[in-house]
Amino acid sequence: MAYYVGEAIALSNWTGPSATPTGGYRNASGTLYDPTTPTLRYRLPGQTVTSVSGGSLTKDGTGLYHQIVTPTADGVIVGAWLSNDGAYQPFTIDVQPAPI
Hints:
single chain, 100 residues, mainly beta, Immunoglobulin-like, 9 strands, 0% helix
């Protein structure tokens, strides 16, 4: 999927249908759970690192979260989903120049 400058992008810690998601915060047995402090740290192209946690994130279900961002420059979004209990899920997203 292509992402473009000026387009709203959901930075999610999961993919797929919400009934059977891939990813999310999971414990050692693979069960989805809500950490005490879910956190998203990311850097949009040309900007500094932003950290969003807890109730500032949109909760889609147990262990499933997202945040909407709109990049203003092309490049790579670099980020990671973290938690107070040691969870770490890094990601990158390529952002292309806006189409003509």
